[in-house]
Amino acid sequence: MLKTSCSVLLGLFALSTASSSARAQAPAGAPAAPHHVWIEAEYLAPLNGANFSFQQVEATTKGSWALAGPGVAAEWTQGGESEFLSAAARADEPGEVVMGRDVEVPAAGKYTLWVRYADYRKKAESFGVRVVQGGAKAGDHRFGDKPIIDELDPMSLLWDWSFGWDSRAVDLQKGPARVEVYTTGPTEARRHLDCLCLTTDPKYQPIGREKPDFAAWAPLRAIREAAVKGGGVPDVEPLAKGQPGGEIPAVWKITDRPPTVVWNVAKPWFEELKRPDRIDVPFGVDPPLTEEFIKAFRGKEVPVYGHALSGASWHIPVYPEVFAAGSPYLDYLSRHPDKRFVILLNYGAPNWPPGTTDAQKQAVRQNVKAQGDRFLGYIAGESIAHMSHDAAVLDAKIAAAKSRADVLAALREVYTAMVVKGFTDYYGAPVTPEEAWRDVISCLSANMESHAHALCNWGVARLGHENTGNSPTLARRLAFMRGAARQFGKRIADYQSANLGDSATMFSREAYFYGASSRNILDNSYDAWAGAGTSWLLRDYLLFGLAGCDVFYNEQGVDIFWKPGGNAAGDAFPVQLSPKGKVAETALKLIGDKPRGTQWTPVAFLLDEAHGWSQERFHPGSFQFDPVKNPAVLTPGRHEAGIRGWFDVAYFPAPETQNEHATALRQTFVNGVFGDIFDVIVTTPGKTQTLGTYPVVIASGEVPVSEEWGAALRAHAEAGGTLVVAADQLAGPGVAALELPAAGAEAEADAFVWNPSGERLASNTYRYKAVPEAGGRVLATTPDGKPVVVAFPRGQGQVIVVGVPLALGLDERPVSVLGPLMHHLTQGLTPVKVGGDVEWVLNKLDDGGWLVTLLNNRGVLKPQHGVNPTNHREHQPVTITFNGKVAKSQEYLTGADVAWQAGEKGSTTQLTVPAGSIRMIALQPG
């Protein structure tokens, strides 16, 4: 992966002298970028308790601003909160109940203060916002006294309130400021704030979830527009050298077989297995349809459930019966030695008969152990293990923590004690921590990223995740999972829910809750029109499958078959595959029956093993804790902003699609300009082995570096790798091994000159420490010629130093130079280029071929409730270029042969991906 010739390295640095002379005449370029300070309400403090839109007043917290998100139907039908959370205070609070946050104003000037809040119909919700600088009020304004949303607005009529924006003018000085939101005394309605923004941009007139046009997006937008209109990301000088057609590193292969798809089964199938004429495949059906289903399919082939890759999922309460000696399920396993299974832990425990002895528990456990690796583990949805931990002990350790590393250590200690005790009770015999963790499949939804590598390090054999329709950028979350699985030698699992916010897509008659009834309209509606929908579900199967998923678990699992009916149509239709079932049938064909190979991801982000970051979490602090528990350690700040910033660059236009109303496809599945080519690894001791498999490694956030990791990073560069680090990012004894240059004096600038093109890039105002250029190649400077991005050769590779602390501006947003830098870093690292407005994934097949998967994420806008017609005008023309000759090629979904045209730069094919659909093109070089 990292072989680089000396001549190539000389070429990379030969332009250093020319770059120096070019800096003397910096181009005039674009005007200065506007200034913005964005503040999420949930990042204000203190927040105590809860105050949700669906709660009765007496159930909400009094005496403080409180957490008000994530929202329910009222919020999601309005497109969602700006991120994932919000804050609220009761209507009966007295004056001066305050929450606030310290910010930095990047420049003096006239700003507009924008506030998004809930405007209650025919009621006032008065509150104030003040900005304090130097001990004096720079601005103090009231909001909520007058309506900002018309009383006949559909959302106001439905919910009695609607999110809206209001603004005030504020004169600010450059420097530190404190933004405070306060109650103005009792008012008529609860005060519910989503976000605030200070901006100098008169063009920013927000609606919905819109954030300002941050300066970093402009160069990325230009790259993307060129990629969509042309044949892919424009060619530029490559900064890193890899082997775009090389062999897959052995550690990247996290699966050696097609995935298993398990379905919830229960008493009906257990009883069916006792019959000689049984349905001998695992099934779970909506209870009202069970009898009709059995009648329809007994003695016949059963779609989906009868697929060779289908398996069973048993709920933990029936564990004692299902795995007891003589069980018909154990007989089934003996007759089907290839079948695998899981046990679901959610909200239950083994239902042992009274008087059960430890010896009897041990016997049941031995029956499970006898199945060997056919038992995949215990699925835990949205939880570590659905067991009780000692919350008081954990809280005390969190309060005493001096660092994020202390928090991670506390989590490991308390959760390990939890799973050891839990499984000891289940098994009737002591278990070791290794035994307890091995079979746990934790499937966190929010907060997965902060625990992904930690769980693998603690000992799980499979790392799971519950994706949802409101969760941004699945490709990024899979980068955490796939990177963790490769780094720790584990496998991954997909816990499918088809959720969007508090709703889910369900094709059941009686199970769960129905939003069509006013009885269930406020929250947690599960019905055929709710949730993420079927197009979202297919993409979930595909991206997890291509990432190497070992097992899929469908959360509801009783609606693969349905019986549609109607008031006029009647109820005489047969039991048949539901829309979910049709999607499952397609997925089993595409990622079960067809080769999927191994995903090609040549770029890794390196994070602190105790980074604590997740984009979505139920509390705003690190590791999803309430920051009140330990403000000095848990309060989100520049470390987390630095992580988020690099990911926003890597997966652009993700930050722009997140400005849209939340719909199932547009935020979860993103047409990333550079493709889904990234992994995430962390600085866990003893786990440096995968580092050398990535041609490019980018440090993100604050990263402590041990001597072991310092030596490994140096060896990675010397072997031909590229390491990217920013000022104020690395700390610890291992940093010395990198021989980073001493930083210069700190100064400020608001633009860059990108030397490879000579382009001037307007930027958010940033501090920088000039990077000494001796021995390196200057890639970017300030407008007055100070080096701020410099590449230093290290053996066969290089270390690129970005002299901007954590690569962030004063506004805690990424600086604009990161887009061009990423463009040059990724140039030439893949053997294919994809042009078109699609998401693309690249897999290397075991036979030496390649699989290019294209997802058209346009044309299907699935809101939380309802179904919109497909906009078929959103079909997308796509051009794929392969850097060699193609001997044969086929598209998986249609089975059609694909023709390629040979040219100077390789072989090219053009196709159209229908609106909301997918295509998978396999090719054999030749």
Automatic annotation (TrEMBL):
Report keywords, A-Z: Signal
Q: Which InterPro entries match?
A: Class_I_gatase-like
Name the domain of life: Bacteria
Gene3D superfamilies xref list: 3.40.50.880, Galactose-binding domain-like
Signal sequence span is 1-24
Name the record gives this protein: Uncharacterized protein
